[in-house]
Amino acid sequence: MTDTTPQRRALADRLVRAGVLVSPRWRAAVEAVPRELFLSPGVFLPAGGGRWRPVPETGTASAEWTRIAYLDESLTTQLDGRLTADRVGGPVDGSPTSSSTTPVTVVDMIEKLEAADGHRVLEIGTGSGYSSALMCHRLGEDNITTVEVDPAVAARADAALEAAGYSTWTVTGDGLLGHPRRAPYDRVIATCAVRRIPYAWVRQTAPGGIVLATVGGTWNYGTGLAKVTVADDGTAEGGIIGPSSFMQARSQADLPFTGDLSARTAYADSERETSLSPLLLEEWMPAFLAQLAAPGARLIRATSAEGGRLLNLVDADRESFASFTEKGGGSWTVRQGGPLALWDAVEQALSAWQDARRPGIDTVRLRITREAHTYQIEGHPALRWQHRLG
């Protein structure tokens, strides 16, 4: 096996320069854990046009495999919940369902977790197992419990962890339920995105412990990294500390939109000109706010028969929609239908945000109780949303 010590040291140097690797103890972990062990049996690289080029470990020259393993990017390890790179012979279509996240993101999150000697950590979303290995090296393998919903992904991660010398607690199951058997934990970290932090994670965290997870909705952008501290009374409070994007938890992931979009939006209850452009929803913070204001809505892009640009907000569960049509001079009309006026709620939130001088995502506070999640930007009553559980 190729000695990748120089590549690991170079990776640590790049992470230090990027400002995400601060602690000498975490640097030691980065230098000790071979990332290539956690990419077997191969990866998929973008091939253009939405297709993926398989690069299996077996049959790839060791120098090329090492080069790929230490790229500063996320490496897709599974497509469509089943396909791995050793099972295909050429470029394929598919949607990524498991990956080895870019090291800069992994290490940045681990540093922000503020884990210390003796802390017990619950990781939601084992994935390749690379982040699990880093935490095992720093905190000790018996202090790490990692949960993965996909049995095949879990088995590959467990084998890689064993090969790296770490016999940690690798659990196959629904991470949204946590793992009460080994609770309480001092830290909980999720390497998948969730619509909201499950109260099970709060309940399984010791008072004073921290939960770190990507939250906000199901869009593949417009989500934020929440960091909350658990109190003695079972509540948790903190805020969104920055933008963050991960694959959605399997049970919460949106399926590809199917059906006739024109039929869904055929019967509107109202039509008017918008006061704000819906193109704002293509920006990160407005997208985050939109998912707070209309948590079940999806943004769907389409093209009219004449080639014009169409945007749609659709909440299929509540049979509601907002359909936008671009007019001349940058103006838009919106047609809305169903029990929820989706664009009214989103437009009100975005107007209040603009009136507040467009505060950043790191100004959003989050409070979690057994009954609800409450998001707010302090000092701005119109920028407050309460999502009740159940």
Description of the structure:
This protein is an alpha+beta fold and 390 residues long. Strand 19 and strand 20 form a beta hairpin. A ten-stranded mixed β-sheet has the order 8-7-6-9-10-11-12-18-19-20, with helices on both faces. Strands 13-17-16-15-14 form a five-stranded antiparallel β-sheet, with no helix packed on it. Strands 1-2-4 form a three-stranded antiparallel β-sheet, with no helix packed on it. Helices cover 25% and strands 31% of the residues. The radius of gyration is 22 Å and the shape is globular. The chain has ten helices and 20 strands. Helix 1 runs antiparallel to helix 2, helix 2 packs across helix 5 and helix 9 packs across helix 10. The mean pLDDT is 93.
What key phrases describe this protein's structure?
10 helices; alpha+beta; 390 residues; five-stranded antiparallel sheet; 20 strands
